[in-house]
Every structure is written in structure tokens, then in C-alpha cells.
Amino acid sequence: MRLPRLRHPVISYRRARLLPRRVRRFDREANRWVNARRDRRARDGGLRRLSRAADRGRLWFVIAGALVVIGRPRAALRGVLSLAAASLVANLVGKKIFGGPRPVLVDVPIGRRLAVYPTSASFPSGHSASAAAFATGVGLEAPVVGAAIAPVAAGVAYSRLHVGAHWLSDVIGGVAIGAAIALAGRALVPVRRAHEHPPREPGERIALPALVDGAGLLMFVNPSSGADVIRADPRRTIERELPAASLHELTGAEEPAALVRRALAGQTPPRVLGVCGGDGSVAALAQIARDTGLPLLVLPGGTFNHFARAAGVDTLDAGIHALREGRGLRVAVAELDAGDTPLTVLNTGSVGIYPDFVARREVYREQLGTWLGGVVAAWRVLRHAEPIDIELDGESLRVWSVFTSVGRNDPARVATMQRWSMDDDVLDVRVLHARGPRRHAMASLAFGRRTAALARVLRLMPRASDIERRLVPEIALGLPDRGGDVPAFAHDGELEARPRADAHGRYGVRLRMIPGALDVYG
User: Please, is 342 exposed, middle or buried when counting C-beta atoms within 10 Å of its C-beta (0-12, 13-18, 19+)?
Assistant: First the structure.
């Protein structure tokens, strides 16, 4: 068996005495008691592996990734940021001020020893600080998840005492620092509770056909939407709650527009068109609903579901209840004209760095999933994105991005993903001029209200003078043909094929508001 290297840092006598003599005596008694215990080999090995797994925060980063996958990105972000801050305070401040030697390894049973021990000062325990900070940060956003992680964090903290890497006071001090840092972060970036939503204008309320069992509903389900988000199969819920509905999967085998036309020509034509999927699927069916004059039922089934949430349909049950009650909204949409058939835009349209991000995300999504693929895509765009030269309503501009929201939106944001107004008659245009660094342009894509606030605190957001806002009924964009597979325009999280460029290597895109163009349940 390879024995660990019994090395300790050279700590001055002054630093060793900063902790009170009573605390040091208590530490020696606690370590003597722990080392005297004769635990089973499996327990010793498990705690040793747990301690190693938490080296450099690896364990917590893995858990954070799992939280993102199951739909808890805010909890993961707060946990990781709390961990980073606590690690800095513990290692760069605490150890410099208090220091102190580590326990003597000859007193630690051989079966518990690590292969290599750290040579830094003893107080406080960085592992314990990181564990407490991560668990507390996650618990602030998601109390139930935090409670599930807490025993793991406690196990990591105890493991540092069990393997002889720290004194008991080191562990207690680290836990106190980590928890305090996470709680202080709550004052800087307040926790968003489950009932908090962005301001939402409900739009004109209207009565729509009330379908109790789904008879008269032609429903499309996109089986690939939100495929990497852990949730119950929406099709089973729809079949159980709306047994008389006609369900079809969006598989690409047949265009939904052709299927709708055939159904309308049948003996029992549908009275309502429905879709369960992400924003891209909803936008495609919204165009068909406008063409056929049918009201639209939107059920959230994608990763983000911005339009469904804006309409007040946060869950499948909420949408089904609105269908049974016949409660609806008359909402405004935008229409995208890029030279071919006009397309319906429900939330936002954009040019610049966001379409580049979406294109790269599509490349990585099949291998890494939506969340991790999005992280890799953001990193690639951060390294390689370049500003573009456009014409906006005849004015030549050099920009990082142009975001256009359907209706007025949060004035403090650059990237507007979810609409706030359902019956507004203007486009809310945000122009990010290419005057600042690329990292500021990428930080402008902070999609959550709190993440955007945090980016501002860290001074990553663009300067206010670099952001221009316009409220207009329509816009005309002249875009460069950058060649290759580089996209030009994205709307509702989906890329649009580039139209044919003119003789000067440019092509035009026009976006205009259409008030009261769509009836939806909500």
C-alpha cells in the first residue's frame, strides 16, 4: 500500500496561536475520539472517496449540472456562485489570517488516509465552506432540493475530519463561512419565489368554444420538444383528460398544414387547433390557426415555453382547464416577411449574436443536450462572435445584436425572450451597438431577470449608452449575407432559412405588428 506523504505547510507560531487555547484543546480531544473509533472498512473507504470527490468542487459542479437538467437552473447558479465566493473567502482570506498546522497524520488510521494531503494552512476547511455554501445557496432557491443535498454536504464536511485533513474547528468554521456567504448573496440578489412572475398584461378576454372532453380538438404533440427535461409524458395526460381529442405527433412525415386542411374538409371538422411543444412548434401552429381562423390551445411541452407562460398557461392542467371553461384571450402577434410566405412571431425576433448562439447550440444539442450544449455554444460564441453591419429602417449601424419583442417589454433588458404584453400594438426594439467588448455582448443574453441583475453587479453588462430602444409598429432590416451556414435571423428560439441575397450581397427582413390576430386559450 502506498502511504501518503506526511507533509504540512510551514506555519508561523503567531498564526498557530490565533485560535484560543481552549479551542485547540477541544480540537485535540475531538480528533482523538474520531481516530479511536474503529469503523468498518466500507465506511472508511466511502468517506475517503466522498472527500476526494469534493476536491476543487467537482462533486458540486456535477450536482449543479443535474439540477439544470431537471429544470432548476436558478438553484444551480446560486449554489455555484455561493460556492465560488465561499472558496475565495476561506482560502484567500481565512487561511491567511488564521492559518495553523493540520492534524498529525500518524494518529489517523491507515485505512482512512488520503493518498496526498493538502499543504495549505488548516483553518478554515475549504471543502466544508464550499459544501455549506452550495447546499445553502440551492436551498434558498429550492428548499426541498436543498434539504436533499444537505446530508451530502454534511458528509463532505465530516469526511475532512474523518480522514485527518482538518480539525473540528476548521470544519465548523468552514461551514459557518459557507452558509454566511450564501445568505449574504441573498441580500445582493434576492430569491425569486415560485409565485413571482414578470408583469403580464392579460389582453382582451374573449369566450371560446368550451370542450369538456376534447371533442372537436385537433391536437399536435411534438415528441422531441423538451426531450432532455425530466417531466411526465404530456401525451398520456392529454389522452386521459381529453379522451375525445384527435392527437397527432409532429414527426415531419406530413406537414401539419396539410393535415389541418384535410381535417377541415371532413365530415366533423375541428373547432379548435392545439399544440403541445416548445415556442418554435407553437409559432408554426399559430400561423396555421391564423390561416384557418381556428382558436389555438397551447400546452407547455418544451424546454422554455415562453408564450404559454405569457398566456397564463404554466402547466398542462391550466391549459386543459381553460379549454373546458372556454376562457380565451385575443392577442397581438408579429409577422415576419423575408420574401417568401409570411411567418408568425409570438415572442421575439433577433439578428446578431443570438442566432449564432442558437445555431451552435443546435450542433451540440444532439450530443450534449440542451443545457450543456447551450453552455458550450455560449463559450464558442464568446470566443468567435463578431459584430455585423446592418441597415435598420435605412440607417447603417454596426451592432452586436438587435432584439425585437412583440409588445413592450422590460426596459432594463437587452435580450427579451418572453413577451410581457399580449395585446400591445408596437414592437419593442433593443439595439446593442458594437462599442463594447464581446464578453459584454454575451452577458447581454442573460435570460433571467435575476441573472441579468447579477451580470450588472459583476459589471459584465453593456453600458447603458450602448443600448438603444425603439418602440415602433414595424421595422425593416437589411442584413449581410455572411455565407456558409451562418444564420441571419431567429425568432421564438428557432432559426429561419436565409432568403436569397440581392446583387449587393444583402437581403431584407421586415417585421410588423398585427394587433388582435390570434385567439388563444388562457
Answer: middle
For the segment 339-366, what is each residue's pLDDT rounded down to a tens digit? Answer: 677 889 999 888 887 777 777 777 776 6
The beta strands (E) that lie in 241-317 are given as 246-249, 272-277, 296-300
Cell digits of residue 424: 400591445
Q: Where are the alpha helices (DSSP H) in 142-270?
A: 143-162, 168-188, 234-241, 256-264
**166 Rama sector, left if φ>0, alpha if ψ -120 to 50, beta otherwise:** beta
348 with 403: CB under 8 angstroms? yes
- 484: cell is 456558409
Contact assessment for residue 514 and residue 334, using Cβ atoms and an 8 Å cutoff:
yes
List b or e across 131-145, with b for residues whose CB sees 16 or more CB atoms inside 10 angstroms: bbbbbbbbbbbbeeb
Helix/strand/coil (H, E, C) string of 472-509? ECEEEEEEECCCCCCCCEEECCEEECCCCCCCCCEEEE
Q: How far apart, in whole angstroms, are the C-alpha atoms of residue 36 and residue 34?
A: 5
Torsion sign (Cα): 412, 417, 422, 427: positive
pLDDT in tens, 382-428: 677 788 888 888 889 898 888 899 999 888 788 888 888 888 889 99
Neighbours of 498 (CB within 10 A): 19
Whole-angstrom distance, CA of residue 113 vs CA of residue 104: 11
User: Is this structure's pTM higher than 0.85?
Assistant: no
Measured CA to CA in angstroms, residue 166 lies from 18, 31, 60, 124, 357 at distances of: 16, 9, 20, 8, 45
Strands, E, within 210-260: which ranges? 217-221, 246-249
Residue 487 pLDDT: 54
State how far the Cα of 304 lies from the Cα of 197, in Å rounded to an integer: 14
Please spell the DSSP secondary structure of 317-358, one letter per residue. HHHHHHHHHTEEEEEEEEEEESSSS-EEESSEEEEEHHHHHH
Cα separation, 329 vs 516, whole angstroms: 9
Q: What percentage of the chain's residues is helix, strand, coil (to nearest 5)?
A: 45, 20, 35
Residues 6+ apart with CB under 8 A from 312: 200, 202, 318, 322, 522
Does 195 score more than 60 pLDDT? no
- Cβ contact 268:497 at 8 Å: no
Tell me, rounded to whole angstroms, the distance of Cα 396 from its chain centroid: 34
Proportion of the chain above pLDDT 70, given as a percent = 80
CA atoms of 140 and 17, how far apart (whole Å) = 36
Distance CA 137, CA 45 (A): 29
SS in 3 state form for 380-420?
HHHHHCCCEEEEECCEEEEEEEEEEEECCCCCCCCCCCCCC
The highest-confidence range among 25-29, 39-43, 54-58, 212-216, by mean pLDDT, is: 212-216
The pair phi, psi for residue 299, each rounded to 5°, is -115, 130
Under 8 Å CB-to-CB from 151, ≥6 apart: which residues? none
